Amino acid sequence: MPLPSRREFLATSATIVSLQNGASPLARAADDNPDIWGRVILPQPHDKRPFREINVPQWVQDTTGVGYTLSVMNSAERKVAAELGATISEVGFVDPFFAYYDSKLLKRRSPHVPPERIEKDIAEYAKLGVRVLGVYPPTLQGEVYELHPDWRRVANNTDEIPQVDLKKNPSGGMLCLLGPYGNFFIDVLAEIVTKFPAVSAFSFDGLHHAGGCYCKYCRANYKSDTGQLIPKRDMESEAFRKYQHWADRKLEDVIRRAQNRLKKINPDVALVTWTTNAGRFGHFRDIPRNMSARMNLLFDAPDQEFWMDETNRGASVVPAFGAAYVWAVTNHRVGFAEPYLMSRGNPYGKDSFPAHEVERRVLLTLTHGAGPSIAYAQPEQLKPAIASAMREVKKRKRWLTHKSPEPWAAILVSDNTRVFYGRSSGQIEERYLANVFGFFRAALEDHLPFTLVNDWNLVTDDLSKFKVLVLPNAASVDDRQAEAVRKFVDSGGGLVASLDTSLCDEFGTPRKQIALADVLGVDHQGTAAAPKPGEQIDENFARTLPPEYWAKRKGVWDFKRVAGADSFLESQKLADLIGRSTVTFKGPVSRIKPHPTSRVLATVRAKDDPKSEELPAVVTSAYSAGRVAYFAAGLDAAYYLTSYPYQRLVLSQAIQWAGGGLPPVQITAPMCVHAVTVRQSKAGERLIVHLFNDVNTTSGHGQPAEEVPLREEVLPIHDIQVTFRGYAIKRVHLEPGGSALEMKKADGKVEILVPKLDVHAMVVAELE
Asked: How far are the Cα atoms of 264, 317, 591, 761 from residue 693, in angstroms, in the given order?
């Protein structure tokens, strides 16, 4: 009998009769507990109070990952998992059909779970030193679905309540967390943590609103809050985009109230739960979004499914991005990712999964800042590989917690741009994500130290830590964010931006002119299409960004540098690649008019058509004390979608030029090496440089759209040089193992050499 997937397993291992009115006064009226909340985060539309991130309990900060599936293991197997480092694992309390305990709220007790099951599991976990992660599927519950039809989610713009044959589908369908069921959901959590004080955290599979709801409660609440009716589901409609913000705020408020309620019972109880994020790329492309990225700040530690099959771009740069992004949405505190051990996703399975690939996926996760979770229940042939990989994590645990990025370059990943500018699940990769992935890939391959940041990080305090800010086609920027960027550059920060940056507001509605025109040194005049010979370029600019807008963003161009000795495009590396000739660029182009003080470094014109109009492609300018580079040609998107090596150099050199020169930590290594620098302030101050060998010895041998990383061997990398500039360093050692690395000090820099990198190592520099 095949083992269940983590999703299948959680859905059946973790049920509700409801209160007749479905609303607990405590759940509705709980006041914020100031002791559990941290700093205020940038407001979003429909906020009714300051939005604060949750203060993460100490035990969560000390946790490196979650060990799943212990609840379906026997005692001997659990003991092995605990010895390998599992410090928290799930215990089911509610599933889509039943409750597993005597609940005053949920009357249908599971006939399949013995009455003593939960108490026995809790006692055994305690003996092993494993914390209890309580499981409750929050939007699927058959009993509630049957008894409270008005709590059902209504997916379409109708007054009709969905009807389900509960004999054929006993779980019913999705419930709406934005109304009375959200209050009831909180009551069940409070009941569990009161009845079972050993519960340390909760996990929910599918804590989202699925893009919104038209139930009677959502209709009434939206009308009360805005005076408007919920519009039909249409991302081209500004009214619906405004409604999506409202639905996001309502769901965030459910989590805020849950945290207040639960932490009054136990201040250390946490939400360590599944999130919709880039680790499962299909989720990241969902539009309308199921939850806001900001909601992750209300979790003590979000965990993401980390899929590396062909449908989730497993052989691309996307998995590395996914691990970095789940850490970023926590404000670089605590986030987890579970690498799924699937050989392919269509069909899903572990057929012929190499043991070595387990270690690769686990160590890739921790390289980019996430704690590697793992499902310990695996086929027999993979159990030794799981054990080996988790021993590797255990060796590194001392260096994995209480860390923060070492700031130099910040790359924005804008959730509002993704949803309200991208607008289409099928097209979002090309419309926006490709821009982010292009800069991410270029910085990764050239080993530039960079940090992924979010919409809410576009504030003065957060930006002041960085030397340079990268805005890859960051179209949806509100006025406060634009002003923060302006102040950052005015104070000497560097800026690199592309295409439609600041064209739209927080709802994705275009402005008459980009908000950062003065900073970028250009006026935006719409899109440019590469015409066929004899055709005139369309100069009309559709202000509502309809589907036709995106059709214009296609074309093949000739890209040409404009001669200039002091241009960052005049590097020897670039000359070696392309000389002085024109080169092909395939991608989007914005039509712009440079300001008189701006300088055009490169142009584009229609491919092989010397009579066509020559358009500015790369523009630089000075804004007060800061340097600005703007890409009217989307070389960032191109470097992910239709890449040429010259594009990496152009993007990387723009970042370094805007940042004022070489970064403080410089890595000399092949492009397959991922280098991530973090600072750890625990028992001393230190820098930790993660080095990950991403070589796949069979990469590129298969059909590109079907390529999957199933690595069977390691190809070692030798003699990696790490240079630290401007740091007072006492000693440097290589972990795991603790071997000392010789330091060469000269001219304010420290150089060390890593003689050999197999899969992963950490260069640890102890600071004075």
From this structure: 45, 13, 40, 9
Residue pair 288/248 in contact by the 8 Å Cβ criterion: no
Q: Which pLDDT tens digit goes with each residue over 511-521?
A: 999 999 999 99
In a 3-state reduction of DSSP, which class is residue 5? Answer: coil
Task: List CB contacts of 59: < 8 A, sequence separation 6 or more.
Answer: 131, 200, 268, 270
**Confidence (pLDDT) at 531:** 64
- The token duo for 43 is 């407001």
Q: Which of 409, 264, 405 is nearest to 330 (CA)?
A: 405
What 3-state DSSP class applies to 704?
helix
Q: Label the pairing between strands 199-203 and 131-135.
A: parallel
As a residue count, the chain comes to 768
Q: Which two tokens stand for residue 749?
A: 């820099």
Pairing of strands 599-606, 556-561: antiparallel
Q: What are phi and psi of 748, to 5 degrees?
A: 75, 15
Query: Alpha-carbon distance 194 to 331, whole Å?
Result: 30
Q: Is the pLDDT of residue 761 over 60?
A: yes
587 pLDDT higher than 70: yes
Number of alpha carbons in the 13 Å side-chain half-sphere of residue 392: 24
Q: Map tokens 């599944």 to a residue.
A: 274
pLDDT band of 209, cuts 50, 70, 90? very high
Residue 580 CB coordination number (10 Å): 8
For residue 437, give both structure tokens: 């992935």
What's the rounded mean pLDDT across residues 64-81? 97
**CA distance to 116, 170, 294, 494, per residue, from 661 (Å):** 64, 62, 33, 11
Contact (Cβ atoms closer than 8 angstroms) between residue 41 and residue 127: no
d(CA 575, CA 410): 28
Q: What are the beta bridge partners of residue 604? A: 559, 615
Q: How far apart are the first and last CA of the chain?
A: 57
pLDDT in the model for residue 544: 61
Residue 214 has pLDDT above 70, yes or no: yes
DSSP lists the bridge partners of residue 447 as none
Integer Cα distance of 207 and 290 in angstroms: 8
The per-residue pLDDT for 102 is 96
CA-wise closest residue to 350 among 699, 705, 6: 6
537 — pLDDT class (breaks 50, 70, 90): very low
d(CA 108, CA 736): 51
Question: Could you give the CA distance from residue 650 to residue 636 in angstroms, rounded to a whole number?
Answer: 9
d(CA 276, CA 289): 9
DSSP 150: G
Confidence of residue 66 (pLDDT cuts 50, 70, 90): very high
- Three-state DSSP at 476 gives strand
* Identity at 426, one-letter amino acid code: G
DSSP for 394-435, written as a single string: HHHGGGTSSEEE--SEEEE--HHIIIIIT--TTTHIIIIIHH
